[in-house]
Specification:
4-stranded antiparallel beta sheet, 45% helix, alpha+beta, binds flavin mononucleotide, 17% strand, NADH Oxidase
Length: 186
């Protein structure tokens, strides 16, 4: 069991839209995936994570809105088209963010931290569900999505999670040894 969990954690990887296949993901399957976010740790139970799911025509509409924003930010056309292609290859786009606590019971970084942990849950679980994806945090995309959704100042977008079906297993990546990031006081 311990070994299995270790392998699952090690197997969480960034899977890019080029590695997605064409198999459908239903809204029900996305819902099932999102369930694991509920169990992330959260200080004072603020449960700050917020997700906006885009699929089908709504995904296409958002892609074209972002294309223009990304091209504007880059100062030349081309980069936005790449985003449209990634949207097309994805079954769903999850806009990931957090809600600041109106009562300021916890500092904002804790809302960000709790949301990151919820994303980690989701990211790990994609593999179990035969899916893959990655978090993308380009500034033009974040600004564009925030504008598109007309979000209040209290809701912060962290990025978008491209989601698709995939069985791709990436090459192992280098990862620092425990000794490189740990000091022991025994
Ligand atoms: C907070 C955060 C932001 C990220 N933003 C991007 C991004 O904008 N574009 C990108 O290609 N990958 C992004 N990634 C994915 C990383 O590039 C990826 O996790 C890294 O290469 C390690 O690979 P692995 O996830 O397969 O272990 C992001 C990851 C994190 C945790």
């Amino acid at each position: 069991m311990e070994k299995q969990i270790f392998e699952i954690l090690k197997g969480r990887r960034a899977i890019y839209p080029e590695q997605f296949n064409d198999e459908e993901i239903t809204p029900e399957a996305v819902q099932q995936l999102l369930e694991v976010m509920r169990y992330a740790p959260t200080h004072r139970l603020t449960e700050p994570w917020r997700i906006h799911v885009f699929m089908n025509d709504e995904k296409t509409k958002l892609a074209h809105f972002l294309k223009n924003k990304i091209d504007e930010a880059a100062g030349k056309p081309g980069k936005g088209e790449r985003t449209v292609e990634k949207f097309e290859r994805s079954q769903a786009i999850l806009v990931v963010g957090y809600q600041k606590d109106e009562r300021e019971r916890v500092p904002e970084w804790e809302e960000l931290a709790a949301t990151s942990m919820a994303v980690q849950n989701l990211w790990i679980y994609t593999r179990t569900m035969g899916m893959g994806g990655y978090l993308s945090t380009g500034k033009a995309t974040i600004d564009g999505v925030t504008e598109y959704l007309n979000l209040p100042e209290s809701e912060v977008v962290l990025g978008i999670f491209y989601l698709g079906r995939s069985t791709h297993i990436p090459r192992e990546r280098p990862a620092r040894s425990v000794d490189e990031f740990t000091k022991w006081y025994l």
